[in-house]
Amino acid sequence: MSRTVLITGNSSGLGHGLTEVYLEKDWEVYGLSRRGVSDLTNIKLKDMRCDLTDFDMVPKILEKLLMGISHLDVVILNAGILGKVQDMVDTSLEDIQRVMDANVWSNKVLLDWLLRSGIRIDQIVLISSGAAINGNRGWGAYALSKATLNMLTQLYAHEFPHTHLTALAPGLVDTAMQDVLCDPSQVDEEQFPSVGKLRAARNTPAMPDPYQAGKLIADTIPGLKELPSGSFADIRTLNQH
């Protein structure tokens, strides 16, 4: 019997890398993303387009995508956006709300549907970030959203008694987000010094591509069950041991 995984935000970046990895493992992959996956042809990929910030539409799409599914081995809630790198004083409530909708409230909608669906789920992994605890200048809305996501994970762990939940920081991954962060014309390193570390890591083993990062995450996920459900973990710390 095939193993099953649901991945959000799988049309690009880390989600796409994870999709490739799990298909190579011969898993059934169910994907939700704004653009859909057009470059992977595999009968084990069931993929639907969905704007995850359209909160009324998400449950309807999930009903179609997961019709007849009684068990998911893993759910990876990966979809998210960066927002603007800028000082908090320059960040409007509208900017913060847009990032929170994508990075937090969309996941609440997903978790609520999964909880009520009756589908048996072994593990849920919500993709967090070191930004959730670092508090570096300029990361404003993104950092707030990931810190909230960590608490969301902890709170829902009480409500999924038979499912293990983890908020997982995946480390540095070379995605389109890095195109923005590593572009001096878009982000001033003097004003926001933390991007210097990212720029130094790009094109080195410290910042793997999405497929390589996806392999590391897929290999790490089974061991997350050793942590208390609801925990936040950083993959770089886990793999030091």
Automatic annotation (TrEMBL):
Presence of keyword Oxidoreductase: yes
Q: Which InterPro entries match?
A: NAD(P)-bd_dom_sf (IPR036291), SDR_fam (IPR002347)
The answer to whether keyword Oxidoreductase applies is yes
UniProt cross-references to Gene3D superfamilies, sorted A to Z:
NAD(P)-binding Rossmann-like Domain (3.40.50.720)
Which stretches are annotated as coiled coil? Answer: none
Could you list the residue ranges that cross the membrane? none
UniProt keyword annotations, A-Z: Oxidoreductase
- GO terms of molecular function: oxidoreductase activity, acting on NAD(P)H, oxygen as acceptor
SUPFAM superfamilies referenced in this protein's UniProt entry, alphabetically: NAD(P)-binding Rossmann-fold domains (SSF51735)
Q: Which PANTHER family match?
A: BENZIL REDUCTASE, BENZIL REDUCTASE ((S)-BENZOIN FORMING) IRC24
- Family note: Belongs to the short-chain dehydrogenases/reductases (SDR) family.
The name this protein goes by in its record = Alcohol dehydrogenase
**Species, as recorded:** Sedimenticola thiotaurini
